[in-house]
Amino acid sequence: MSLRPRSSGVLAAIVLAVAVLGVTVVAPVASMLVASLRVHEMALKGGPVLRVAGTVREESDPRRPNDPPTLIFGVPSASDPDAEPTPKAVSAADVLERDGRWSWSFAHYEDVLTSRRTRGLLVNSLELAFGAAFLALLLGIPVGFVLHRTDLRGRRAAAALLAGPLLLPTFFAAMGASSGVGSVLARTGLSGGALQLGNSMVCFASLLFPIPAVLVGRALAAVPAGLAESALLLGGRAAVRRHAVLPVVLPAVLASAAIVVVLALCDFAVPDLLGVFLPTGAVPVHVFATEIFLQWDKHANTGRAVATGLPFVVVVVLFGFVVVRALRRCPAGLLSGAFRARPPVRLGTRGRLAASVVLLVALGLGLVLPIAAVCSWGFSPLRVPATIRETPGLVEDTMRWLRLGLIEAALATLCAVVLARVALRGPRLAGRVLSVATLSSLAIPGMALAAATVLLWRGLPAEPFALWKPLLVLTGRILPYAFVAVVLAVREVDPALEDAARLMGAGPFARARRIWLPLSARGIAGAFGLALVLALRELDGFVLVQSRLLPIRIYDNVHYGRTGQVADLSMAYLAMLLVPALLAVTLLRRPAGDEAPASVRVGAPPDASDDPTSTEEASAAVRS
Q1: 311, 546, 551, 533: which is closest to 443 by C-alpha?
Q2: pLDDT for 331-348, tens place per residue?
Q3: Where are the alpha helices (DSSP H) in 150-224?
Q4: Is the pTM of this model over 0.85?
Q5: For the purposes of burial, counting CB atoms within 10 Å of the CB of 314, is it exposed (0-12), middle (13-18) or buried (19 or more)?
Q6: Which of 485, 465, 478 is nearest to 534 (CA)?
């Protein structure tokens, strides 16, 4: 059934959701593209035109107040894009325009593409991402096998605990990894940038291993029992692995590895913080995310920063296509039971011991080690209230952070509901376009999206602690996750119920109030909880747009040392994250025995004849 917005209210909701998507994602990316093609120049009277790097500063001589001021700016090297800009001072009387002029040019891209530093950034970023993916697979695949293919007792409780690392803020995990993992890696002979990258790989692997654990584990469970039995009869266990298991599992392995690569490439906090924690005298290495921040914050070179960000986005998009292609090749039963499942693997005493060790190692690396390491900095539960009182402005920053998270979660969820309805029940072309546009921000690193948002709204004055800019960045970052969660919830509603209600004369709002909203309310509430958790654990999107928030306060304090105050604030921060995290996990988890409709499980088109009672149920709902 196509969604025909005959009601002006429905049309207004769709227009509003599309406008939010445009303001938070499309317009900032467009502004970043424009800024990367604009070059600041200073034209001298009767002389050359100098390219400006950074900002132009005016200085006046107080002893000669009537003389024109001196303009001071940096001029980038024409032969070496990695060289520091050469300071240049000229009199304002010697230039055609005191503020300079802007022209269209590919100069920033030429600097980025010919820079030896860019090649180093690419190598460092890919080494970090591929190393993290390899370690995440190494840990996640055994965990997925134990959780989804064995009869080990307590699997459900273990699965809930092992989802915890995905909820930890990345900088929190980096704080823990710097103490425990870093000291172990240092004893192997790693130092400097190699120690930083190795530490970052282990940190990302311990955070992201639940992704391959879920995808590969579900793929293993989705191998049809009939196919495995046929292969066993024809060629034995080797044939089962070669012809039944591997074709199903390999796409899930590739998809999960590509997702880890994308998330590791986009993160700023982990490589930056682990570079800070290197021993004195060690030189940290940079990846794309930290380079964008360096060019923007330290050198004030906006054009170079966004020109670095756009090729970075292209690299991430390529891996995003790998994720999509691999997920399409995954079995139909990856997210729901489409086939008769194979019986679980029965474990003996040694098998149960080995499975328990695998889960304990994963839980230790992902949760216990980071939390214990931060606590070792001097955490004292009794001192937390005093630390909060004695830290100036902390309560205000915390309330601002909570208010921002709640507003963003509500906005992202409302937009996700409208966009999901269009994607599932609207015209096919419109649904595909909106889905691609919504999910596209997953390929934009938080640092790049924050820079693009600042560029877009630079001319609009804002109060120092205004929340609307970080709200726009957060919405662009979190909307895809809320969209996916709402789609999974709304698609479980049988379309035949809505068709029957429509035939009974129910309008769009009546169908929403009586049919699909009550049936998908649990999943939509879970999407709100997920959006709230992701908003509260965000750091990368805040660094350039708002510094007076609790995560930024903790992150900045970490740079001054591993102190008891940082440990107290970090654990209080983690405790506040726990409430929405438990809400999201509880609501998004499907109750035992609750299966998707047959049309959803096997991918068949919805048909009212699948449920002969659908018309009566819808009629009763509308009449009530």
Answers
A1: 311
A2: 655 554 445 667 888 888
A3: 155-162, 164-167, 170-187, 192-208, 210-221
A4: no
A5: exposed
A6: 478
